[in-house]
Each structure stands twice: as C-alpha cells, then as structure tokens.
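seq as requested:
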Amino acid sequence: MAIITSILFPVDFSPSCVAMGTYVKRAASILGAQVSLLHVFDPNSYSGVEVYLRGPVEIAEEHQEVARQKLNHFLHHEFPAAHFPRILACGDPAAEIAKTARRGFDIIIMPTHAGSFRRTLLGSTTAKVLDAADCPVETSHHAETIAPRPMEHRELLCAIALSEDSERVLGYAHQEAQQAHSNLRIIHAIPADDPKLPVRLDLGEHIQSAERREASQRIEALQKKVGSNAPVRIAVGPVKEALLEAARHSDADALIIGRSPQPGYKGRLRDLTYSVIRDSPFPVISV
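struct tokens:
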C-alpha cells in the first residue's frame, strides 16, 4: 500500500522554491504521487501610500488577485496548472501550510532558505511547519543556486534511536522504500563515554561491547516486526555528530528521522530534528 499519494509543495516564488521544484517533481514521479502547490499571502501587507489611495478591502482583493496570478504561472513548465492543483490561502504561512496539509496530504516538501536557516532554524517558517504539521515533512538546506540532487540512486537512510517511537519510524521508512523501489539502510548512534573522542563507524570486533550487541539485537527485532532486512551501520560518538558522520558515508537520496509527536518546547523543539536538518548532507524526512 502506498503511503505517499499526495504531496503538498508550499511556494513563496523564491529562488529556493525554484531550485526545489525539480526535486519535488522527480520525487512525485518515483512515488506516483500527486503534487499540489500552495501559496500563502498576507492580505495586510500594504504600505501607507496604498492605504492613502484606496481602502483596505480593495487593497486586499488586489493583493489576492496578484498572488493568484503569480501562483498560476509559477513553475508552469514543471507543474502545468491543468494537472497540478494550485491552492491559495491567506494568513500566517506556517499555520496555513499545516492546516492545508491536514486536508489529506501525506507529506509536505518545502525548501529552507540559505542564510538565516543555517544560523538558526527557530523562528523560520520551516521550523514552525515542522512543529505544527501532523504529517511527515521533507526539507533540505541549500543555497538559492544549489538544488537538492534529484532522487536517482534510490537509496534511503533511516536513523533510529531505539526509543518507543522507533518501530513507527522504521516502519514508515520501510514502506516508503518499497513504494519508491529504493534500498534502505539503517544508522544508529551509541553515545560515547568521552564526547571529545572522534566519531567511530563500524568498528566490528573493536567495539564488541554490551551496548553494541544489545543495539544490534534490538534493531534486528525491530526489523522483524516491520518486515525489513536493511543493512545497519552503528556509529559511536555524540549522537548528532555520529548520525551525520554515518550519513556522510552514504550516497542516499534522503535521511528519514523521527520527530517527537508532541509539539512545542516540551517536544519537537527539544529533539535533534532541527540541528540534523541544518547539517544533513541531503534532504531530511522527519516523520
């Protein structure tokens, strides 16, 4: 059964969205999914000069029409309007994106913007969507002139933490890999006793500790539950750094990670989602 049949692609007409367009189209083609483009405009974004010349209602209607025209013509070669629905909404972008996604979309794919996102994710539209959305969110850091590599290698990487949520995350990764006819690999990080030591990868007999044996056994049990048989790479070191180092040794199309089911400062704002997305070498799907 396909788990991704409808993709929501929020756009703000920026170069980052143009760069992301090819990736979204390729992903949709591989998954056999429908793409809908969403643009959220602010009806109150008018200047004092505009208010002086016309009333607020007239200005808002004009801004809505301008936004509609721009949305209808945006990426029209990649996503012809006759086959790829356009959705226009007004209000707070993150709130509207999350609300629209709840209408039946399986995943949100959106870019992050260079600059402020690389310095801090908190406060950005992408961060708010990650916190508010109920469905998986795929995003990628990239400069405005560098697009994510199209999904060609059919390699998915899944990071699991062996928590209560790991079966759900691995099950999702296994299903998506099947739908995309992709290979799946698993990475797991064991915290190092000394965080100052460099990250160690796949040390085999050099790391036959009780922790590693237990991790391997638990991952094997998880794979049996979800029907997976993916190769596993175990890294030792600070969790985020170990996961990212393991990811850099993979030629994957995307990294799948778990996202806390609880939004806000007691949930998603405290986990590693944001920092992993910030530094991942390829797009991240947080589920």
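Residues 6-140 form a domain with the Rossmann fold fold (CATH 3.40.50.620).
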